[in-house]
């Protein structure tokens, strides 16, 4: 019996990766960056996420390597703590608590027993410092906070400080200029030189390890490398995607790292050659498509870069790929009306994708309906058909008909618009006479309206036989085979905001939510109102594989969740105060393996996971597991072999090992039991950090014993062979024993009976003696 656990709201992705400057490990194999309340460890060679450091209760504001132990990491957070980690093993070593107003201080981190330590010894360096970490910089040498020459400058601009052959401070300004300040020590009159390339604000600066070059970045998405502080000697790496927020350099100077405003991390070689890219959830300026699930990959699909669709993987917290829908260059200029992506829908199997893009320039409106077909060879969507101006006004809703249970092969798409019409588009397959080429054509099969009201929503029933279209305060139901109007439902006051059909055992119900705070359920068989509730629903999302429907309400700046079945007016689950932000969209994602749920109250989470997006574009979900059980295998144990790059030699070695394992399958069966027993000891030896291992003389006997093969258990063939050998030997022994006893009886002498008895031979000696007696010695008679 699994114990019941409370339902918790957890952040599952979308946290900004550019919240603070990232750092490389000492060997430049790993990249450590902040992500909301977490610290993430990425492989610099493979881009894979190898560990997540969880433990902070607030936004992580910075990470730094421990200068005395390069395998340890310090992280600071708005929860008032500084945590010391062993990032290779994900072990939280110590917590330093801090509770004071924001100011620049020097804190002494004492080495005391216990994990929680209160930081009491500190000295104030400067008050009124800007909260941005870019407004504070430290020299490469260690300075006393009270001594003259403390390497901190509150310039209220972006700057960085370097100490190499000369003292120099670089500052970036809002007009795109970079100034290099010198001679500011020892009461000398300072001087500065100016570098200028950026046309807008310089967002970050970073010196190289040698101090001979300076890296700068801004809104141009171009990394600029200035050599020897000269305005004439500079190199560029353009088209990095979005504005550069932070720049980092590895300790050996071989790698650079840029953090971008679109939640992207770019790893660059020191020769300004692109190496790797890690793309998180892009926070679009305005999510108009909502949260849509790709049936093929189970990825979340929503607005990404301007004019693009991003396919976001929930398991790895990374973007799978981005699809360019608009296929136009986006101009970075305020006030321009540019083409925007507003609607998206997938077919049931995910082979077809429909998108709507619009560009509004008073008094004209440009609309484009595009159909994309998934290409198996390229594993991407390709544009198939484009329809210009499918409606005379904005398109408000769009959906495909599920064709799983239908006999015909036609694909139907329905669009609803503010022009008071809904249109039915039929996609047919056209084959040439020779049957070599297949083409698809789209035609408008039906146009419907209702009392000249604006069409606001549309959806199909589970079997595709009925279509529901809402016209302001009225919901109309249409037969999808003849497009006849069957019935209408109305529950004034208020316009219909959402509408959806029930599924499985609740397929006879139709659910609607109004903008005046009513949630209604109608019975399609009796054409009557089944029940209604006074609830201000801002999100209504049905589960595609169960009868459950999730409704999110917003009242008094508080979001609440209500999960119900249409045939039961009482909610199954009520969760209040979900988050501080308003929830914009939600989506059910089917699970690969059903979850084990201990409480009947949360059984609706067994087969599907509910995700929702807030107005700050934070992606949240629900969990019944405690935080320690939610850790993945990769975050519990650092698998070094998974983070290594795939080379031809590794592939060849892997193939050789696979063949060897196939050839030695019999030996594997014999060794398996012993290997499984001793595997924990071997794993502990191989994966424990070297600085905490016992001496080699102590570990060597344990490791050698774990490799020995036990002889206690024998296979059936070995046992059968031994039984046959024993039976043959027993027969030989019985015959020889008879001969020996007869000979002994003939050769017994009285003196032997009276004297001492001679010692008996061992079994081995007796067997050897019997072999000698059986030998043929007739050849001796020839002499």
From TrEMBL:
Keywords: Nucleus, Repeat, Ribosome biogenesis, rRNA processing, Transcription, WD repeat
WD repeats: from-to residues: 53-95
InterPro entries given in the database record: Beta-prop_WDR75_2nd (IPR057644), Quinoprotein_ADH-like_sf (IPR011047), WD40/YVTN_repeat-like_dom_sf (IPR015943), WD40_repeat_CS (IPR019775), WD40_repeat_dom_sf (IPR036322), WD40_rpt (IPR001680), WDR75 (IPR053826)
Gene behind the chain: WDR75
SUPFAM superfamilies xref list: Quinoprotein alcohol dehydrogenase-like, WD40 repeat-like
Nucleus as UniProt keyword: yes
Subcellular location: Nucleus, Nucleolus
Domain WD repeat-containing protein 75 second beta-propeller: 291-617
One GO BP: rRNA processing
Compositional bias ranges of the Acidic residues kind: 718-745
Record's protein name: WD repeat domain 75
Species classification: Eukaryota, Metazoa, Chordata, Craniata, Vertebrata
Pfam annotation, one family: Beta-prop_WDR75_1st
PANTHER family per record: WD REPEAT-CONTAINING PROTEIN 75 (PTHR44215)
GO molecular function: RNA binding
Domain of life: Eukaryota
Organism: Anser brachyrhynchus (Pink-footed goose)
GO CC aspect terms: small-subunit processome
Region entry Disordered, spans: 718-749
SMART domains attached to this UniProt entry: WD40 (SM00320)
